[in-house]
């Protein structure tokens, strides 16, 4: 009991209001409160009304305490350069960012995989349709051939249908072969680096070069001119057979 009385005495100390900051008030009334105005209107079983009454009571306490703090010249707003320490360290926030980034990348990879699967599925579907179409055409042609062999039909239209696309392909290939001029790659390189001129056969004689004898010199051509200066030829060592003959003569 002594401890309880001591605690009660501590609570009853007459301290300044700035040290206590206790405000007793009811809910906000007037234009600021529209849903709940008194305690009697609050249904304790209704979570929304109960939480709203707490919010309005806190709002009323703030509206009552702010003017008193302003009268005591106590600032109630943080300065613009106020530095607040984060509840979590920078390392923890970095881990969170990396985790969020990895989740986003995983979602992007999953989305790309879905798109690839859809494209493969569509491509497979188109390929299956083409194969089915070819099989159907082949089956129809075989049936027509059997009917013709049995004498049930005297029409050879299926042969004309087979030859028509083949001729079209031949014409297309011939038109491609007849195509003249350099290809697109060659034209691009000519435009970028310039066309250096004809290389093949550049050293061939022409009629003009054959008849042009202005650069001909008879002395040089027939080796009658002065000999070119240079080092004298050194004495070379005779070959093996010559050395053997020289030895046999010396004996």
Automatic annotation (TrEMBL):
Basic residues composition-biased segments: 115-124, 177-190, 229-251
Region (Disordered): 25-45, 100-125, 159-251
GO CC terms of this entry: nuclear periphery; nucleolus; preribosome, large subunit precursor
Keywords: Coiled coil, Nucleus, Ribosome biogenesis
A Pfam family this chain is assigned to: Ebp2
InterPro entries: Ebp2 (IPR008610)
Subcellular location: Nucleus, Nucleolus
Biased composition (Basic and acidic residues): 102-114
Gene Ontology biological-process entries: ribosomal large subunit biogenesis; rRNA processing
Biased composition (Polar residues): 26-37
Major localisation: nucleus
Function: Required for the processing of the 27S pre-rRNA.
Family as reported in the entry's similarity comment: Belongs to the EBP2 family.
Protein name: EBP2 protein
Organism: Ceyx cyanopectus
Gene responsible for this protein: Ebna1bp2
